[in-house]
Design goal:
- The protein has 459 residues and is of the alpha+beta class.
- Helix content is 40%, strand content 18%.
- The protein folds into 2 domains: 179 residues, no CATH class; 223 residues, Transposase Inhibitor Protein From Tn5, Chain A, domain 1 (Alpha-Beta Complex).
- The protein is built from 18 helices and 15 strands.
- The strands form 3 sheets. Strands 7-6-2-8-9-13-12-11-10 form a 9-stranded mixed beta sheet, with helices on both faces. Strands 1-14-15 form a 3-stranded antiparallel beta sheet, with no helix packed on it. A 3-stranded antiparallel beta sheet has the order 3-5-4, with no helix packed on it.
- It is globular.
Length: 459
Amino acid sequence: MVKRGGPLCGLKVQANGKGQVGHAGSALLLAGVADRVGLTEALSAAMASTRKRRSPHDPGVVLRNLVVMLADGGTSLSDLAACREQEGLFGRVASDATAFRAIASIDDERLDALRRAVALARSKAARLGVRPGRGEQDAGGREQTTIDVDATLTTAHSNKEQAAGNFKKGFGHHPMLSYLDETGEALSGMLRSGNAGSNTAADHITVLDQALAQLDKRALDGDILVRGDGAGATHELVTYCREADLRYSFGFDLTEKVRLAIVSGWQDGWVQGIHTDGTERKDSQVKEITSLMDISEQWGAGARLIARRTKLLAGEQQSFADHDGYRFSVFTTDQSETDVRKLDLAHRGHARVEDRIREAKNCGLRNLPFKAFAHNKVWLWLVQLAQDLLAWARQLCLQGEARAWEVKRLRYRLLHQSGRLVRHARQRVLRLSKSWRWAATLAAAFERLQALPDPSLQG
């Protein structure tokens, strides 16, 4: 015998409500931030020549809505329907066909123009408070900015252009991405075939060139650190960084020669690693082994090697490269910092790029939707712009722990909030449920957004 009960017992569902809207947070925050930092206007200007004379839809606004849709959790053009059916919040939203035509009209030259438009909006966002480096300065008073570069694999479930087998025996593409560590902004991305190399220096340089073009003068005049894993440790990329006056911190191959240098004088020179709060890491020590390797001839003056040893956990399998119960890792850098603990802490921060890539895949990168490579290249740009929009919304509109919410939590608590849209005293009023715990957070965020200066007055 089945006992009847629970929240659905006695519930009736009727589809005849009036004024109800969903995804209120996406309209209030994401679309609002895009407008407030001048992104919508800049995209419209970059796409102006593609607009048909009789078209009711501004291509720049179409792109803005696509970016909002991706940040909101959409994964294909058809997900625009969630915005299209709520004209009271989002305005008139283009059809799927119109959105596709906007994407198809973007060639490489147009994409460069759109990147310049984003750089303009990014500089305005920085002036409003999304400051690269969060205003931190080095001993010389220069702002510190960190660019992380990494590649990832995407899976293709059909035969798409330049999809190919990869080194993990999958099938798809192998994009290379860069992020601004301090704010989580996505600076640049390069879509590549699935069999593209991880350590292709030319691709790293292209992505870095695009990333630097996104920074404003204040950041460019400051101290810029480029971080990467072992794929970044190439002579060409190190030379590029040196000539561009960029500091670098790249993973380094644990060759037998390097391993022997670490093992020599096994008990000498090690210091405890540190956490971000300055406390010591219990099972991790670091030391510099530059003098034991003499790498200046190959890697240039100022190149240093820092080794880390980490105690194996109980039950971990020891490999041939491990020694005396420790696992090794090495990185090379040209930073002048004398405290190797701080160098190690800064290099370990590169791991945060994995969080950024995970967010990108939650914003539409997991499965590129188009057959044509050119269209998917635009889609990658839209995905990263969605990450920018999320980063700007966090920095400009949220406070406290909400600034650190990952995209999934942000959607469930704020972006997907529902409400009732009514008219009162010749105004539109969005009434959020007072029983929803985070309704006040969204209302306060919208107040901060409204308090930002009008983009037309920012110069």
